[in-house]
Amino acid sequence: MAHDPLDTVIGVDESVRRDTQAASKALAAAKKAEQTGDRMGSIGELRRALAADPTNQSVMFSLGYQLDLVGEEDEALAMYERCCERPPRMINSLINLAIAHEDRGDYARAERCLRQVLDTYPNHPRARLYMKDVQASREMVIEEEVDRDVFKRKALFDTPVTDFELSVRARTCLKKMNIRTLGDLLKITEAELMSYKNFGESSLQEIKKMLATRNLKLGQGLEDAHRQARKALIEQYKGTGQEGVLGKPVSDLSLSVRARKALQYLNIQTLGDLASHTEAELMGVKNFGATSLKEVRERLTEHGLALRHIEA
């Protein structure tokens, strides 16, 4: 396994005696099994490598990663934790451990893992991307804990839009946009609604009035929609070796001044952030037109990405 200088943070303990020869042999067999598609065989060889060399963090990480890919989440988490118990702590282990904690809703532990990375490498793109998601998730939890009516609110968001008194035209348009619940509706902006064929100003005002009577408004669930889109992208790229593209700064795209200002206005910092937005969201920014949109779409395509699309 190639050594990445970003994979270590501080010093190493060389006091433990290890059978490195046996470990290397098992590790080579694990790589061969993985190359032939025998993931379980690879896991077995990695277990043997770790038994021979119990403090080898690279083997721990590889075993945890393979276990994660086959759905053995508990054992994978335990392996990442073991890998991070002593210095030098591998950055990739800390990040994967953070993701595992986030998936379990343990945002405090996830944030602590990412903080260890960012304290040493403040501009690490993947750590910054995941920290943004963890903090957003944690803030949502705090807001829910403060709100005594959280369960009632969730039930409200799950209410089908057909339960509300809307015109036939408005209900038909929402159905075509695949907007099924009140929660779906709150993740949509006015610009996105108006961009659909046959959806006019009267339908927009009708929906806004309905939401206002419940102290709600269009777009208030956008951050949740962006977070879910980023998580979906992370899951899509998991195991491809190209996860880093999501954390690439948008400043590297060599965009025009007009396009850059629009992304700054929307607080879009990485390609992952950008791909979680829709065309309508970008077009809703003043002075961002068709030319800027074409420019952004082309840059994303170059990296195998696209703007978020709402299925009609």
Brief overview:
By secondary structure, the protein is an all-alpha fold. It has 17 helices and no strands.
Kindly describe this structure.
The chain is an all-alpha fold. It has 3 domains: 5-16 and 55-144, Serine Threonine Protein Phosphatase 5, Tetratricopeptide repeat; 150-212, DNA polymerase, domain 1; 238-302, Orthogonal Bundle (DNA polymerase, domain 1). Helices cover 61% and strands 0% of the residues. The protein is built from 17 helices and no strands. Helix 5 runs parallel beside helix 7 (125-146). The two termini are 45 Å apart.
Main sheet: strands, sense, barrel: none
Task: Tell me the β content.
Answer: under 5%
CATH architecture of the largest domain: Alpha Horseshoe
pLDDT average, as an integer? 82
CATH domain topology of the largest domain = Serine Threonine Protein Phosphatase 5, Tetratricopeptide repeat
List the helices and strands and how they pair.
Layout: H1 20-35, H2 39-52, H3 57-69, H4 73-83, H5 91-103, H6 107-120, H7 125-146, H8 150-157, H9 168-176, H10 182-186, H11 190-194, H12 201-212, H13 222-237, H14 257-265, H15 271-275, H16 279-283, H17 290-302
